[in-house]
Design a protein that fits this description.
The structure is a single chain. The protein is globular and about 50 Å long. It has a five-stranded mixed beta sheet with strand order 2-3-1-6-7, sandwiched between helices. The chain has a two-stranded antiparallel ribbon with strand order 4-5. 34% of the residues are buried. Strand 6, helix 7 and strand 7 (183-186) form a beta-alpha-beta unit. 47% of the residues lie in helices and 22% in strands. It has helices at 2-10, 20-32, 47-54, 56-75, 98-116, 122-127, 162-177; strands at residues 38-45, 83-88, 91-96, 129-133, 139-143, 146-153, 183-186. The protein is an alpha+beta fold and 195 residues long. It contains seven helices and seven strands, in the order H-H-E-H-H-E-E-H-H-E-E-E-H-E. Helix 3 (47-54) crosses helix 4 and helix 4 packs antiparallel against helix 5 (98-116).
Length: 195
Amino acid sequence: IFVRASRVQDANPLTRLPGNYSITKEIDDCIDNKQRFSIAYVDLDNFKSFNDKYGFLRGDEIIKITARVLTNSVRKLRLSTGFVGHVGGDDFVYIVPPEKMDNVCKEIIQHFDLVVGDFYDEEDRKRGCIHSTNRKGEEECFPLVSLSIAVVTNEYRPIKHIGQVSAIAAEVKKYVKSMSGSNYYKDRRTAGATP
């Protein structure tokens, strides 16, 4: 009952998904139980420019549909160990066994890319980008919102604490965000390897 109560208290108000406390606990449990795991960090690309043009209410709808796509894809596996959490803003986490991760990532990207265009006006959707101001105050054509999924796993090297998970995720996220469109990338480096 305590775990369920803390998850309800921890839930993100927009998506009702477990928040940071639950995410941290879930990752710590994976490490402490010495089980094989894979953790996906999901980030929406070009979301700020979408929000700037269409407003936060339509932006919230993209956040909610992202949560639904992630939850449905993980739930479909019917795993007792599957987990989806909402870090906040446009950042999510999901955890599935390593052997399931590639297929889940592909399915999530496919479903997300199928629905995201519906949130744009027809003119922007046809053009494939929206005109908005960048951080330097210059007009720019931003691509449609896409997903970057950075996957951290202990399949290839031991991971002993959540700090390692965060550091690896930051490196992988930087790499996957440099690609255009929706993509995922799994860290396959072995112990001692550099990025």
